[in-house]
Amino acid sequence: MKPFIVSVSPHIKSEETTGRIMWSVSASLLPAAVMGAYFFGPRGVITVSLCILTAVLSEYLYQKALKKEITINDGSAFLTGLLLGLNLPPSAPFYIPVIGSFVAIIITKQLFGGLGYNVFNPALIGRAFLIISFPKLMTIWSEPTAAFVMMDAKTGATPLGILKEEGYARLIEVFGDQMNLYSQLLVGYRAGSIGETSVIALLIGAAFLMYKKYITWHIPFSYLATTAVIAWIFGGKGAFFTGDPLLHLMSGGMVLGAFFMATDYVTSPSLKSGQILFGIGCGFLTMLIRLKGGYPEGVMFAILIMNCFAPLIDRGFKTTFFGAQKK
Amino acid sequence: MPLSVFRGGIHPPDKKELSSEKPIAETTPPARVVIPFSQHLGAPCKPVITIDQEVKKGEMIGEPTGFVSSPVHASVSGKVLAIGEFLNAMGRMVLSAVIENDGKEEWTILQDHPDYMNLPSEAMKEKIKNAGIVGMGGAAFPTVVKLSPPKEKPIDTVILNGAECEPYLTGDYRLMLEKPSEVIEGLRILMKVLGVQKGYIGIEDNKPEAVTTLKKAAAGESSVEVCSLPTKYPQGAEKMLIKTITGREVPPRALPMDVRVVVQNIGTAFAVFEAVRYGKPLIERVVTVTGEGIREPKNLLTKIGTLVSHLIDECGGLKDDNLKVISGGPMMGFAISSLDVPVTKGTSGIVAMPEGEIVHAEDFGPCIRCGRCIEICPMGLMPSMLSIYAEKGLYGGAKEYGLFDCFECGSCAFVCPSKRPIVQLVRLAKSQVKP
User: Fold this and answer.
1) Which residues pair with B200 in a beta bridge?
2) What is the tens place of the pLDDT at every residue in A266-281?
3) Contact between residue B95 and residue B36 where contact means Cβ atoms under 8 Å apart
4) Which of A122, B175, B233, B376 has the greatest CB tally within 10 Å of its CB?
5) Is B130 found in the same domain as B241?
6) B10 within 8 A of B414, measured Cβ to Cβ
7) Is B345 exposed, middle or buried (0-12, 13-18, 19+ CB in 10 A)?
8) Which residue in B239, B379, B413 is closest to A13 by CB distance?
9) Is residue B149 part of a domain?
10) What is the pLDDT of residue B64?
11) pTM above 0.80, yes or no
């Protein structure tokens, strides 16, 4: 008879695995990726594919070289590549996604100790690195074509870019009227990063993640609510309480960031109360950058800055032990 | 009375259907028994027998050596073959007596005391103490100690723990169905000993038949209330049970008596009844032998000292692909390395698991800080932090995160998507720092 296995209790475990979570999050981004492919054509598809490929390959080679366990099957490198790809402009030359993914996986994740130990969201550091290193290339936005052909699309400005440079009135003019602006933003027919434009596609994915309890409302809703309130109070020109919160919620990387990036387990607080504070901080910083900063969009830097605070927030919001005197 | 459910908890598949409809059956008497002198928390007993001595069933073979200790008795009649160190289910070598069963089932004197409820409470306590009764839910804490709270800690409530929240186990369930009035009498005795007016029996609502049966049996007793509790592991943990039934929270590192409560297991109450009425010592108990790796799961009334191998033979043997055998339940039980270990007073079940049910301990990854363990920890701890600190050898840090509040229910390790051995790391840390 074979010897028995002896191990410490518990002897049964749930079916949930890290791999299943990572692959599910990747799957939830499928609608957004499909819309990105539809709007930005083969260039978009190639950019995202290059990101994923480089991310997975970088992780594999790094672990191989250092004789560590190869963990590319856990889906986390794939997810990082996918997220970075969806966050890139469709018109960037093809070495851009390769460099970005390399930075995301090697510098941000592996050099900090691999999965679970990175301080910053790898995909966002990859993108921040690119924006700082290639500011021009990273801010050329092509208009969506919705014609799946390889061609040099017209370049245009993102809604937030127009808002920053030319003002709200001009933005409405470009889109025809306010309703048209909202509906275009909802569907995603606008210039922007490959996977960030279609709010409706992103919300479908987010709903799936919330249904599966892979994410909870705490971070995204506190993030979105804070953004909306600040946009409403301070977003208008000249007078308070005249801003357009819907515009701010649906443009830029807000939905992608709030539901898929800020909720990254590793780089956000573990405690629900802390997560709300984290979301509020993200919203505040995003709007600070959008309204007062040099960049038209602030989601990326806001989340990265709040990533630094995540461990501190967890420390501050310790749990109450069972039976302890409640203050 | 409003139930205030504890926070957190998990819902593992309960798998009770494997054995829940099997009435308690008596195990074929084994040819020999191995009775450890330490089956309880506290000081081991001192052997009072010699090799070759003939003992009778129920005869005391080991006497207690302190306040927190408990005597052990022969579970068969026959000759003492050996006294020495034998392997127990926890993997330790403990002093034990081997008794050859002569098959005569000759008892020491048993005395029926039909008027037992009118015994003075001191006499009841003495009987419970002499019967060697310990908590039969698993921890095996001497019952008489729980029944002797210091004067400054008045008790106003006794709770019988019928939650049986461990998956697979059905021994308490069967006992509640088959011996409801004895269980209630046991509770009444416990209440009388403690001078308490209110007794509860807490049963998870996945056992509605037990709730109905006990409610019927307790119909005339206004002082006994049968509570149907939400099914949620670890509902049967003392602190959780007290919280759900009375709303009181036992403070960190304090005991149930600090909130005026004593909790006893169903099997213990039954044993208390038998001890006080008949003077019967604790020499047998119900053991659920179950799991996907067992051919024919059963609830067996088993003599203490019966080897697990005997019980498994009694249940048709192990299936070929069986890989793990657990003494106790799958959440808090011990995996055993050999089937030649004896059933003791705290053995609630034997669970055999084939390959398909096992998660191999070596396949674990880093903590991804998903926070699932924090959400479900019934003690309000951050198991993720405990495991990370322990993994890095920073045991002092683990202590700050409530290391010693953890009672190792295993809920965190159950939900962990990285399959981290959190309980193992917690135990490691506990062994390395002082509380």
Assistant:
1) B159, B225
2) 999 999 999 999 999 9
3) yes
4) A122
5) yes
6) yes
7) buried
8) B413
9) yes
10) 94
11) yes
